[in-house]
Design brief:
By secondary structure, the protein is α/β, with parallel strands linked by helices. The protein has helices at 11-20, 36-45, 57-62, 76-89, 103-115, 130-140, 158-166, 179-182, 185-195, 237-243, 245-250, 261-267, 365-378, 389-407; strands at 2-7, 26-32, 53-54, 69-72, 92-95, 120-122, 147-155, 199-207, 289-296, 301-307, 314-321, 324-329, 334-339, 349-352, 413-414. The protein folds into 3 domains: 2-122, Rossmann fold, CATH 3.40.50; 126-211 and 284-364 and 381-414, 2-Layer Sandwich (Dihydrodipicolinate Reductase, domain 2), CATH 3.30.360.10; 218-276, no CATH class. The strands form 2 sheets. Strands 14-13-12-11-7-10-9-8-15 form a 9-stranded mixed beta sheet. A 6-stranded parallel beta sheet has the order 3-2-1-4-5-6, sandwiched between helices. The protein is globular. The two termini are 41 Å apart. Bound molecules: nicotinamide-adenine-dinucleotide (NAD).
Amino acid sequence: MIRVALIGYGQRGKFYLDAFSKYEDVKVVAVCDTDPEKIAIARKKFSLDENMCFSSDTQFFGSGKIADVLIIASMDQAHYAQAVKALKIGYHLVLEKPIAQSVAECREIADLAHKYNRQVYVCHVLRYAPLYTTIKKMIDDGKVGNVISISETEHVGWWHQAHSFVRGNWRKGGDTNPMIVAKCCHDLDLLVWLTGKKCKSVTSYGSLMYFKKENAPEGCADYCFECSYKDQCKYNAMKFYTEYPAFAFASGQYLGSPKDKQAIYNAFSKRANPYARCVFKCDNDVVDNQVVNALFEDGSTAQLTMTAFCEGGIRTIRVHGTEGEIEASMLDNIIHYQKFGKIYGVQPEEIKVTVEETFGGHGGGDEKMVDDIVHALRGDASAKGLTSIDKSIMSHLMGFAAEESRLEDGKPISI
Ligand SMILES: NC(=O)c1ccc[n+]([C@@H]2O[C@H](COP(=O)([O-])OP(=O)(O)OC[C@H]3O[C@@H](n4cnc5c(N)ncnc54)[C@H](O)[C@@H]3O)[C@@H](O)[C@H]2O)c1
């Protein structure tokens, strides 16, 4: 039996416990969260003993080793200290991305994993998404020859930017992580994993251009519920959160029924609710646009654009090799492949990738990653362990270097 404990029963933590508890040989044995309401929900759902529910990580770690694996799905700023304590106590880890808040912290976690011989899986779920596993296989099979350049766009989306990076938990880079690490470590990770190449250097530009006071409409209020523009503004909090109750829930400001629109409306009509604020009058400092250029050791290059200004929620990619090119989007999960030679009659191919109906997200990657981790924890030879800390750390080194470059006006930073 694999005993699982969790710190952080929020949006991600809920998914993990639901996903892990589907396996007959996995048992959820302990939950830790600072929010008593969340603890109560988890306790009931997984029939946990009272002494296996913890309201602080100090209390949790004080109990010694009470499970085999610990899932760390708390906020970014807690990951490092919790991971270090857990490794010293003897847990294997499923560690939400970002790994930590600096290169030194990330390296220390990797070193401790080696020192204590622990398995640490970083939740780079896109390595398991069928769209990207198909592209990876095509590259590995030589369909495009040697990859010379690769470009990605992370279409964050106006609404996601407003929810998470303007009003929400990831709005201040110093508290959590810079945007290029917090949101885009996935994209940087894909560049490294898909090409199998080592990054040598990065440059980056980016800024917070739009979600700031200068762009507030004349005379608009600090809170949407008091604002004369509320009927015409797409960022109107009452409207957005009643339309998308999942986000109302994710904000932690409303835990009631998703169908009770009036209750959601009321919850987002209060000054005490930070998600009720005008998007132009928050205390956010993370960028809403950023570009990263990467140079690999063999001279090949990669480019990533992150933008808030799109309908959003998708990623797109182009891979350019010596023998062909690939273009794909998470919007439709279709891969367009052209082996070079159209003028000689080589036809383009369209590959529709099947993504099963899932209860997790990330293009089907969430559940497939959990499945592989369960196999790895069982010691199955078939486990791929695609997101072990050693394989995952490069994305973070690139992300922190990109932020350093951005802050130094695009100076090249060696990895
Ligand atoms: N892999 C991915 O694609 C992906 C997607 C979204 C978020 N994340 C990451 O997952 C983590 C959690 O994000 P989320 O959206 O679930 O946030 P969330 O706010 O919904 O959940 C975090 C939970 O942790 C609890 N918590 C915070 N600090 C704690 C502490 N010190 N001790 C105990 N409990 C604590 C909070 O009460 C909350 O219930 C973040 O680091 C985030 O960056 C990863």
